[in-house]
Amino acid sequence: MTGLLGKAPLTSDVALFIEIAVIVTLFVARFGLARKRRIRAHGVTAMIATALHTVTVLLVMIPSLLRSQNLLFNNFSSPAIILTWIHAPLGLLALIIGLYLVAEWRFRPPGATCYKRARLMRPLWLLWVLSVVLGLLIYLAIAIYS
Ligand code: HEM
Fold first, then answer.
1. What pLDDT band is residue 5 in, cutting at 50, 70 and 90?
2. Residue 90 φ/ψ, nearest 5 degrees
3. φ, ψ (nearest 5 deg) of residue 6
4. Is there an atom of ligand 1 within 6 Å of 110 CB?
5. Which of 6, 10, 78, 104 is most buried, by CB atoms within 10 Å?
6. CA 84, 100, 52: angle at the middle one, nearest 5?
7. Residue 1 domain-assigned?
8. Number of domains into which the chain is organized
9. Which atom, in ligand 1's list, is nearest to the CA of 26?
10. The pLDDT value given to residue 76
11. Alpha-carbon distance 107 to 66, whole Å?
12. Is residue 3 part of a domain?
């Protein structure tokens, strides 16, 4: 079954919508909550974004990457493949750092470690937004060029 633009499978559309929800959640976590020092709510929101991202990576992105192995190593002139080579490591790094922060926190009252980690959160946030934007571009590149 194909998705909205008729080129990608329906699972890619679902992943796209989930990743847009992840970005909206991360915007709320940063500008709505961290800035207002609502740290617990910020942590919970970041945890939800991390959980959604993990599910999408495991159920859609990794299977799709495995299915496209041949193209990935043989088609370096394709915009979608070039973007995938940038998007996949960035998305994986965002996932690992996000999981680390959430696992380290474990719903405890925010303390010194949490505030120390805030320095890592700003680059993580940028990395995450960048990787989702690249994912969106891959989707569009497939729709336009395939
Ligand atoms: C998992 C993904 C997470 C992301 C992407 C994220 C993102 C951010 C960002 C962008 C900031 C603002 C930093 C700045 O402007 O200097 C921030 C601040 C902060 N975050 Fe997170 N965060 C995450 C998880 C967490 C968790 C699990 C906690 C634990 C409670 C936490 C606690 C804090 C604290 C204490 C601050 C500092 C707020 C302040 O300066 O008053 N964050 N976070």
1. low
2. -65, -45
3. 80, 0
4. yes
5. 78
6. 55
7. no
8. 1
9. 5
10. 86
11. 35
12. no
Residue 131 lies in a domain: yes
Using the mean position of ligand 1's atoms as its centre, give its distance from the Cα of residue 35 in Å: 9
Structural domain span for residue 95? 10-145
By alpha-carbon position, which residue is closest to atom 22 of ligand 1?
Answer: 121
Residue with CA nearest ligand 1 atom 18: 118
> Which of 44, 16, 31, 30 is CA-nearest to residue 132?
16
Tokens of 124: 């993580």
Q: How confident is the model at residue 142 (pLDDT cuts 50, 70, 90)?
A: confident
Does residue 4 sit within a domain? Answer: no
Question: Cβ distance 5 to 143 under 8 Å?
Answer: yes
pLDDT tens digits for range 53-109: 999 999 999 998 998 888 888 888 888 899 999 999 999 999 999 999 999 999 898
Look-up: residue for tokens 């750092």? 97
pTM: 0.90
CA 121–ligand 1 middle distance (angstroms) = 5
CA distance to 34, 53, 83, 102, per residue, from 97 (Å): 18, 12, 21, 9
